[in-house]
Amino acid sequence: MSETQRRVAIIGAGVAGLTQAIALKTKLKFRNFTIYEKGCEVGGVWNTNIYPGCSSDIDIHWYSLSTDLYPYWNKSHGLQPEIQAYWIKLSKKYDLYPHIAFNTKVLSAEWDDAKQQYTIIAEDVFSGKKTTSVAHIVISARGILESPKIPYEIPGVRKFQGTSFHSARWPSSIDLRNKRVAVIGNSSSGAQFVPYISEDASVKVVHFIRTPTWFMTQPHIPYSDTAKWMFANIPLVMRLHRAWVTFWHIAFLHLPVDDKALQRQRNAMSKYILDNTPDRYHSHMIPDHPPGCKRSVADRGFLKSLYRSNVTLNFDGISEIVENGIITKTGEILPFDVIVYATGFISERYSIHVRGLNGATVQGYYDAHGGPTAYIGTAIPDTPNFYLVIGPNTGAGTSAILIAELQVAYNLQLIEPVLAGSVSSFTVKAAPTDTYNAKLQERISCSVYVHCFSWMRTNGTGKIFHPFPWSVSFLWWWLRKPNWDHYTAVGAEKWVWERRRKAVKNILKCVAVLTLLRSYVNGSAQQILYDMW
């Protein structure tokens, strides 16, 4: 089929979706695709998370596309406006905006096996108007930080008469001056925005913490004008800097993790927390769970902010939220004007109805396997031509951009034959998917992740669905090229014949090279013998 007949749908214009779109254009020269984005601008989490202090946890030169390094980052870790501006710039550079349907939410994608295509129903988030379209390939790039979690299990959440919101939906017009602010949750976002909002002494902050977390130091180191000039003008300097940053991140992941190493890590992190925290909080600040069981929080001023007179930590627990504040489990009534929920995201549900073969759905597959499950975090059985970017168990403790690039490169190898008309569809088989995930869960069962309640587990205590339990080099190796025996191909006669032809051609090339090499060796040996005599 021609390009005008084949179509690709990408769900989400965050960093994963944009990375996939850029690759379609630059690697495959393919342009017949649509990116469905429910927001009003590109960037995904970097568009929606506008709370004060929002920044990357990964060094910014590594948290950028390997094909589009940027020399003018201000600091070692980028802030939200800077990161979003980077992705807006790339979207303009690669002319992606004409491909993006903004303010459009995908409701469903259902596979028609007879036509070998998906029927997609999308909805305008403002008008509610629904549209129907078709696509031969669907890429899910919606990520795991899409649906904010409000703790409705706390009685009275809906009773509060003041202003309340999740940190991921921070109102741009909010004015916290002279306000009493309750912060619920000890996530990374809370640790980022509390130091910022509490700089104003008129803002009275009470931070409710149910479970303490591990902190690690992570200063934002400014890049000098000289460094920026060198990155921009001296060949290879910026790429060597990125390689150095990458090396240290990868090397850290390969450090020994025996009991002694874990204890040394625990001692060092405990010392850091206690050395930087007021004495009155010491008995509450060290977690019971081991480091790494939950996501460690980068400290960029949170612990020091606890010395401010307008910041208080509360470990009493919340009994109820009432019209004008919060009642703690000790019975104390604390009045508030604003409640900010820093309570993470709902990551274990796939909110879009995607139906594949024989009525199988993505969420149904997740449910049947105890939580999010996929083949190398990328493909799901009985769901043809449907691929994930940043899917289940791809959290390798490294740059999400690196993971996205690895998966996108893998996806392209499955996409290209379909776009060329050589194959109608690829579907990953159940057996290799089960084998892969059995090994993965076996490995995780011996890891630190089993020791705590976590958002990375189904219902907090069930299946661990986010971490990748091996080194990222294993993920790179498995994603470098598809194992075609693990996929069922439909309409692939032409493609199979072409692969066999190429295989025979490569064998003949090897035979020819070996023959020439043998002739050369024999000739050299005869010459040596002749010279000896």
List keywords for this structure.
globular; 533 residues; 34% helix; alpha/beta; single chain; five-stranded parallel beta sheet
Description:
This protein has helices spanning 15-27, 45-48, 80-93, 188-197, 225-233, 237-253, 259-275, 282-285, 302-305, 362-368, 400-419, 430-444, 472-479, 493-532, and strands at 8-11, 33-36, 100-101, 104-112, 117-124, 130-135, 137-140, 163-166, 180-184, 204-208, 215-217, 297-299, 311-314, 318-322, 325-328, 333-335, 338-341, 353-355, 386-388, 425-428, 487-490. The chain is α/β, with parallel strands linked by helices. A five-stranded parallel β-sheet has the order 3-2-1-7-19, with helices on one face. The chain has a five-stranded parallel β-sheet with strand order 8-17-9-10-13, covered by helices on one side. Strands 6-5-4-18 form a four-stranded mixed β-sheet, with no helix packed on it. Strand 15 and strand 16 (333-335) form a beta hairpin. Helix 1 (15-27) crosses helix 11 (400-419). The longest helix has 40 residues, at 493-532. The chain is globular. The model has no long low-confidence stretch (mean pLDDT 94).
Mean pLDDT, to the nearest integer, reads 94
Radius of gyration equals 26 Å
Overall geometry: globular
**Overall strand count:** 21
Q: Cα distance, first to last residue?
A: 68 Å
What is the helical fraction, as a range of percent?
25-40%
